[in-house]
Automatic annotation (TrEMBL), chains A, B:
It holds the Pfam family ADH_zinc_N. InterPro entries: ADH-like_C (IPR013149), ADH-like_N (IPR013154), ER (IPR020843), GroES-like_sf (IPR011032), Mito_Enoyl-ACP_Reductase (IPR051034), NAD(P)-bd_dom_sf (IPR036291). One of its GO terms (cellular component) is mitochondrion. This is Enoyl-[acyl-carrier-protein] reductase, mitochondrial. It comes from the Eukaryota. The lineage of its organism: Eukaryota, Viridiplantae, Streptophyta, Embryophyta, Tracheophyta. GO terms for biological process: fatty acid biosynthetic process. Belongs to the zinc-containing alcohol dehydrogenase family. Quinone oxidoreductase subfamily. The keyword Lipid biosynthesis applies. It catalyses: a 2,3-saturated acyl-[ACP] + NADP(+) = a (2E)-enoyl-[ACP] + NADPH + H(+). GO terms for molecular function: enoyl-[acyl-carrier-protein] reductase (NADPH) activity.
């Protein structure tokens, strides 16, 4: 068994003495190069680290982190893939209300393969595919060491990119569809930002339940193509915002019933359009604000139309009791992905091209598929 | 027994053949002067009638309506008093979503004394005080004939002006305080438009339950006096909007806990101020829009602060099953009024000065007490 240099071992032990601070807290210490590691130590991890909050393309650096001790209940996972989600960007920018203390490793979800397990670990073995569930910070690295409770085993036949990205966007879509209004087959929902991953998931989850979807997208070059794509996913109606500059948007619905449930991830005019489609006593759930514009609502919408406006934040939901159910939901969503009933465009990008993937995720190159880092 | 001219009798009978159209539908017929009336006919009624929707001071006319037949289950009530509520104004203007067909008699609530009863009426006798409950259109007249089920008997020791005005504003305050959040003694609420009748009722109902109230009023001449009045009613804190132009309004709360429930009857900036006071996962209920400005909300208020925005409309609530409880609530509110625990400023105005009362209610003479027509 190879020896471990005392300084690094002490640091690792300290970290494991209590669950927090997380692995990247080690970065505060001199990065003593430990190349040799024992079976109770993880391999060193190559990670996307930010020392301060700021523009992600400036503050994110790829660094090598020293090995970590693998305690009896720990599992060391070799990461396979992890997405760059908008909320990851916001965490790095420092504009997210909950964020890990810096220095920190980026990323919040992903999929990996069990590399080695602590002596007390049961039910998971090297080679198993796992995801951190509920998701947690620090997935943009090659090796992650966490307690066995953190890891949820998934079927290895799952397409890697869906396993990597299921726990944030698709789960958000599923929860929002189930938690606010009891929508049934034959009912309808309405949403803006329909080309987002959550938007695409909502369309497909609705279709799978016989629920109609009314979808609003931005006016831009290629909107006809975007409409076609969403219709192929099962969207009943897709409108650009300008198409909805009519006296009564409901006249455009044909046989689709008025929706009682709407979703807003844009704000501004696009949110007002969702409200216009809603039926009496309908609910609009806000889960994003891509336009960076607020939501403006008339008094009569509340009093006479009896609309309710709510919000959804997965991270808060995951901190509630209900989160226990989330692994069942993830299994369900991944089964849909395996059956081809839940699809969305992704681009798998090798880890050594991280900066390029980040630039795409930041929107520097126009609309791009969801970027998934492949380790 | 005096005879009744055939034309008027036929009209009355036709009206009574079905519950609708209401008494004022008679206005469509020639107003044959019937001065003589039998015991099965009501006296003629002097009423505030509007033939078309429009500015209330233009379209409202005082007219004499012919006697109505009093059927077996009917009660003829001599009206004692009825308020001019903002919603009465809106109904006449035609901007209210539900309004009686014109020509119509104004008013929606009031108190009266039983004048005569049909042969099948039980439990009510001439001299009893009654209010229409749930309230319904057409109270601005001297005699109202309706089915016995419409009338709710109240204690004659009740101050007339409170009996006349209990069924809209105080009931709105009570329902809003009970229906959205379970606020308990020691908790707090926040509201704008605190000088409104509903606002004043909320302060007093809260105080009676040991609930703190944080109150927002307009900046205007006399705001110090208004603050003092509200504090005398039991308001814990009263701020003008400009006093709340601070970085964190919650620093102004001293020992009062953050409120989980807020009320908005103003819109615009005043609504934003209510939202600022609310605690995590709080609810703001909109029941009016005095500024005529919409409500603007940030995306993060929904996602990260988890606020909910709802609306309340008494007329809708009264059409629900829960409305059965409303008479118990009215008795409770009137008992508070009799005990002096529920007070608000009113001005009793003789019916022959209706136009002057209407001008005051329309705000032509600045801030005025609630106008109550005394018949």
């Amino acid at each position: 068994m190879a020896t471990v240099r005392p300084v690094a071992l002490k640091a690792a032990l300290t970290r494991h003495g209590r669950w927090l601070p997380p692995p990247w807290a080690l970065l505060c210490r001199p990065n003593t190069a430990v190349r040799a590691f024992s079976s109770v130590m993880s391999p060193p991890s190559t990670a996307v680290v930010y020392d301060d909050h700021g523009p992600p393309d400036t503050v994110c650096k790829v660094k090598e982190l020293p090995p970590l001790q693998i305690k009896d209940d720990d599992i060391c996972v070799r990461m396979l893939a992890a997405p760059i989600n908008p909320s990851d960007i916001n965490r790095i920018q420092g504009v997210y209300p909950v964020r890990p203390p810096v220095p920190a490793v980026g990323g919040y979800e992903g999929v990996g393969e069990v590399y080695s397990v602590g002596s007390a670990v049961k039910g998971l073995s090297p080679g198993d595919w796992v995801i951190p569930s509920p998701p947690s910070s620090g997935t943009w690295q090659t090796y992650v060491v966490r307690d066995q409770n953190v890891w949820h085993k998934i079927e290895k036949s799952t397409p890697m990119e869906y396993a990597a990205s299921v726990a944030v966007n698709p789960l958000t879509a599923l929860r929002m569809l189930e938690d606010f209004v009891d929508v049934k087959s034959g009912d309808a929902i309405v949403q803006n930002g329909a080309t987002s991953i959550v938007g695409q998931c909502l369309i497909q989850l609705a279709r799978d339940r016989g629920i109609h979807s009314i979808n609003i997208i931005r006016d831009r070059a290629g909107s006809d193509e975007a409409k076609e794509k969403l219709k192929n996913l099962g969207a009943d109606q897709v409108f650009t915002e300008s198409q909805l500059e009519v006296k009564n948007v409901k006249n455009l619905l044909a046989d689709i019933p008025e929706p009682a449930l709407g979703f807003n991830c844009v704000g501004g005019n696009a949110a007002s359009l969702v409200l216009k489609f809603l039926k009496q006593s309908g609910i609009m759930v806000t889960y994003g604000g891509m336009s960076k514009k607020p939501i403006t609502v008339s008094t009569s919408s509340f009093i006479f139309k009896d609309l309710s406006l709510r919000g959804f934040w997965l991270q808060k939901w995951l901190s509630s009791d209900k989160a226990k159910e989330s692994r069942v939901m993830i299994d369900y969503l991944l089964s849909l992905a395996r059956e081809g009933k839940l699809t969305y465009e992704m681009e798998l990008v090798p880890f050594n091209q991280f900066q390029s993937a980040l630039d795409k995720a930041l929107g520097k190159l126009g609309t791009q598929p969801k970027q998934i880092i492949k380790f």
